[in-house]
Amino acid sequence: MAILDKIEVTVRSSGQVLKEYEDDDNDPESRKMVTRYIEAVSNAEFSVHLNMGPRQKFNYDSITYRVHIDGIFAVGVVVHESGKARKHGIVSFRDGIVMRSATSNEYTFSKFKFSDIQFDDGLQAEATQTIFEKLKVAGEIKVAVYHTRKRGINEWTHGNVGLSSLATSEKALKGGSLSHTTSLTKPVPCAAIKAQSVSFPKGRSNPFAVFRFLYRSRKSLQVLDKIPRTPSPVPLEDRPEEQLTAEEMRLLVRQLKAREDRGRMKQERGVKRERDPGSDVEELPSPGPAKKLASAKAVEVIDLSGD
Description:
Blueprint: E1 2-4, E2 7-13, E3 16-17, E4 21-22, E5 33-39, E6 45-52, E7 62-69, E8 72-80, H1 83-88, E9 90-94, E10 96-100, E11 107-116, E12 118-119, H2 125-135, E13 140-155, E14 167-168, H3 170-173, E15 180-184, E16 188-189, E17 194-199, E18 209-216, H4 218-223, H5 246-269, H6 289-298
Parallel strand pairs: 5-18, 12-14
Antiparallel strand pairs: 1-2, 2-3, 2-6, 4-5, 6-9, 6-11, 7-8, 7-13, 10-11, 11-15, 11-16, 13-17, 13-18
């Protein structure tokens, strides 16, 4: 699990914590940043879970989590200092974002989901350059944690943050391991919310903990040697009979019978035609269309008519 300074962050999907894989480039001595790989399943929704342990030190009056996905600020969580927070800790999660329409003042909610990167080699150069910039920060969920000061309660003004599926070219991807980006589900109406405003005494560039989750497809994780490659199954005929189940034995019998039938049919097609006793020419089976051209070049014609 990714834990720093009594704070644990996990990513969950389908009700399960996604298994984390070590990043070989991660500094094991780092006390401020931890990086993990996780598996992304196409179109699966996911959530970011924040667990702050008891007796957490508050330098000011609050601790703020800022969640960036694919380089875009998606959502924040403000934990207020209190007796309960200090004694028992705090558990929170975010599985999507609330957006407020600038025109109708309506609020909607959309969930996070993993989306395949689509490939389109017909993209114009200008579009490819824009996408190249997006690819630099794609495939990453980053949670930065700060000591903050509360300010006031404001109206919620969060609009469309720009999370969406991505189309790119193979050239722009340059053979990298990226496989997914994050998009949003169809928005549904939700209740209005307020926003807690905070200040960052040490600046937004100085969090005291950073959690990075690089999400990739299972195939990409195998290429990166994060998880074992799927071994090729041993053919049934090469396995000991005592290890085969009844169903596997039936399947093996069907496979062997089908192979025997194919061999018999091939043999029947290749049988020579019976020679005509009065002829000096032996008729051979006619080769298939693909072989005729090669045969015409390779066969030497001999005149047997005599002088």
